[in-house]
What we know:
The protein has 22 helices and eight strands. By secondary structure, the chain is an alpha/beta fold. It has an eight-stranded mixed β-sheet, with helices on both faces. The longest helix is centred in the C-terminal third of the chain and has 34 residues. 46% of the residues are buried.
Amino acid sequence: MKSAALIHFFMILSLSGLVPIFSLLFQFLLVGFHYWRSHYSKCEPCTPRTAIIIPAWNEADSVSATIEQLMRLDYPSDAFRIYLIDDASTDNTFELCKEKQLAYPNKIIYAKREQGGLGKAHVLNFGLQLVLSDEWAEAVLMIDADVLFSPTSLTRMTRHLADPTVGAVTAYIREGHVPGNLVSHFIATEYVISQAGARRSQNVMGWLACLAGGAQLHTRENIIALGGKINTTTLAEDTYTTFLTQLDGRLAIFEGNAIARAEEPGNLRSLWKQRFRWARGNVQITRAFRHIWFHPKKEASLGSVLFGWIWFSTLFMPFFMILTSISLIVLLFLDVNLSWKIFQSFSALSIVCYLFFTFYTLFIDFEVTKRAWIATLMFPGFISLTIMIFSFAPHTFNYVLKMISTTHTFIYWRMNILLFFYAWISVCMLFAWFVYRLDKAGLSQKITDFLLIIVGYGPFLCVITLSSFIAEMVQINLKWDKTERLKMKETVFISEAKSSFEKLLTRDKWFEKRLFIYEVIIIFLIIFLLILRNYSEF
């Protein structure tokens, strides 16, 4: 009886790994329904006077291109101004900004902080103080100094402000380095999944988890309601602002057809620094808003069970991986066949998600996927992908197992291989950490790129989240450092043909409708594959 109870206990624990998988799959299944829940029905021609705040610290390599691209906006020239807030730069940012002021008089306001290094939120607050001291601005757009807006992006964002219930709108930030390298390609794929995909689904559900820090538009009223400043108590000021906006009863909208291109880190050590700050910020957000979780009547959509499930399934993914791994290993010695069946189900769902995500990202953003196809295919890592394939096709697994073993050693090999399979669910994070340490130690990036393909980018993100929990637990001080980004060898300005409001809206609606059609096609293809698998010997 005790043994049966123990088996059931660990069987339930092992199924915890399905929580984040179901969460990701559920979100992506909703993407196709964005056509009906895109907020486009409430959009009207709307071009409020917009103050564009650009926080800059030692941005001499990028700020000129950012300004030039903003000057190409398909937006009334007299309806936007640029506020360059210099965070006590030590390079020639000052000289470049002054040049742009002379080139575009009355369009650029330059201000320099005497004391820098306190973080982006402090720089934004300095800019907001300037903007709000004047009655001119009706909306505020906060962007990063390395972000290049496509000409129609601001128009696509402001059209949502015609609805007075909207407080903020964010754009789709696309990794913009072309041709880039493997790390930037992984980031590009991640952004298609986490922004272009997941944030569309959040529109469908009626809430937004985060306004992209590099491209967030607010109404003046929303900024004033937030106290006229950005919160500085967390490392995730953009998420904090997003929560407050919605808790005050205003909508936060993701506009996936407003595209901004950004430079991103080109190596693992720089990426770790950036994502560690983000991940720790999310841990701080979770604690700061602990009163909202799972209180639907009290906190509306952000307090819903659905939002809590999605938020915590993502935040706690490393712990789900560890718990599943330990539980399956224990079950391996209690009931090997049961553990294998559970793992097969786990892997079958994982590979369905993998196929769905891989094909769907191709249609969501073909421009990114075609140049980052290796990163898209190898996102979970070669080892994890191989394990999923073997588990998905058990006949193939048994065939390979018989090839490497004899009748006497079959059970031995099976136990050891399954032990490796189960352990890899969590151990992959440890190996991802080793790859990061090798990169930090100065090992050739060609080698670390190869190792990252083997181990996977997904495990790399998970170990960062796990590390952020540890750092927050022991209260390690984190200095706000500038992220080292992969600099573009040559700036390619984004161009677009001018379109009327009606044509632009019709085009965007049609794109959203196509996403639904593509989703239906992909689902039928995956169902066909599953049926084929059941009738196949492989």
